[in-house]
Structures are given as structure tokens and as C-alpha cells.
């Protein structure tokens, strides 16, 4: 994961913001933005972006910061209607990149620090997914600074007077930076761990990827990527693994029938249970019971 570190002061500042509405078949333009950063936040649909040959698929809740002086473009047309907020910002200070987040040491104030602010770093991941509880806040901040609407449906670009003062606009922008900089790997870890805990607590029930998506407010593709990155398998494969492990325990510790155990761990069909069990363990549930259950 690439992080962008902004050395402050001076603080980065907002140039302008807007909203783009793309039809199916529309594609982001190819361009180089001199000196300005471009932040894209997808609210619905899917946007395919390329920045210096690095490809990104942006889904609802995903954001991407495109650094200045690099070529960025859409590498594939939208395959559905897509809406995204964006903003351009600039810094007169130094910025750098690394593969890890940077933090600033908070020194205790003393009498020699009354009149000059120590340097500090704002560290933001270039690409990420907004936590569900922050989605509406970021959406609102972006709307408050929006002065441009690019509507591909009507083939028009509209410009508006700002609804907030210049100072308020900069404050909203800093709130956006603060929100993005607060998103670390620990939160992503918690999100994936929460999915695992949910599967462990509910494996007896019928669970689909759509169920998980609705409960955790993430796009299914993002859930698959995140869970697979952590556990090496998709959420449904992980669910199957949890069910098989629970079945092994029941086969060893209970006198329930194979059919009952299959139902207890979430398999509605006993033949499917037997097939999946043998595929993963190498023997049928009955053979496993005979080899492991203690004799009276």
C-alpha cells in the first residue's frame, strides 16, 4: 500500500470540488494535472482508473488520490451508471511517498515553542475504502465544497457559486484529510475480523455473500479481496471451512446422526455435506467418526 506524506506547515489546501455522473460506456479522460492532486470518491457504480500503469477498480466507498504531474486516465469504460465526487488540492510544502504510514512525534510544549509550530506529517493512503460509518460524512463534506457538476447524461458541465465561505471550504477539506489519514490497517483488520466472527457465530444459518455485503455495508468484491488477503480464501470458502471444522467436532463428541450433524452446521443437504467433507478431509463423515470417536 502506498502512502503520501504531506510535511506541514504549510497545510495542503483545497482548489475546487465537484460531482461527476457517468453513463454506462463513459470513460475518464486522459490527463496530467500540473502541481494539483486529484481525489476521487466513488459513491455508486464502478470506475476504472489507471495512474502511471497502475490500475485501480473503484467501487462504492473507494477513494483514490492521483498525484500531480503523472498521467492518469480511465483504462476501461464504465459498465454501469457511476457517480463520484472529486476534489483538486495543492500544497506548497514538501510531500513524499512510502509503503508505510508515517507518524509525527508529539513533543511536550515548552517556552521555546510559543512562536513557531513544529513540523508535522499528514500521512494518507493513496487508495482505500471508507469505513461504512464514515461514508455519509465524507459524502456530505464533498457535497459542501462542490462547485462543478459534470453530467454525461445531459452532456453538460455546470458551475455553481459555493454554498460555503472560502474558510469553511478549507475546513471541510481538512476534515476530509483528517478522515482519510485516520484510516489505518488496524481498522481494515477489525473489519475482516468482524466478518470472521460473524461467520463463526452464524455458520448454522444460510449465509450468502449478499447477506455479508448488506450487514457490513461493503461491496461484495471488496469483501472478497479483504477476506482473501487475510485468510487466503473467499468468505464463502471460509464459511465452508468453519462448518467442516464444527462438523469434525460433533462427529467426535456427539452421537448425532450424519444427517443431523450436517443440518446443525449449516448444510441443508446431507449428500452435499458428505461430498464437501470428503473433498476437504479425505474421508467421509462416517469414516472420520469411526477413526476418531472414542470407544466406550
From TrEMBL:
Taxonomically, the superkingdom here is Bacteria
Q: Which organism is this entry from?
A: Anaerocolumna jejuensis DSM 15929
Recorded protein name is AraC-type DNA-binding protein
Q: Name one GO molecular function term.
A: DNA-binding transcription factor activity
Keyword field: DNA-binding, Transcription, Transcription regulation
The protein's matches in InterPro entries, at most eight in alphabetical order, are given as: Cupin_2, Homeodomain-like_sf, HTH-like, HTH_AraC, HTH_AraC-typ_CS, RmlC-like_jellyroll, Tscrpt_reg_AraC-type_HTH
* Annotated HTH araC/xylS-type domain residues: 193-291
- PANTHER family hit by this protein: ARAC-FAMILY TRANSCRIPTIONAL REGULATOR (PTHR43280), HTH-TYPE TRANSCRIPTIONAL REGULATOR EXSA (PTHR43280:SF2)
The record, for Pfam families, names: Cupin_2, HTH_18
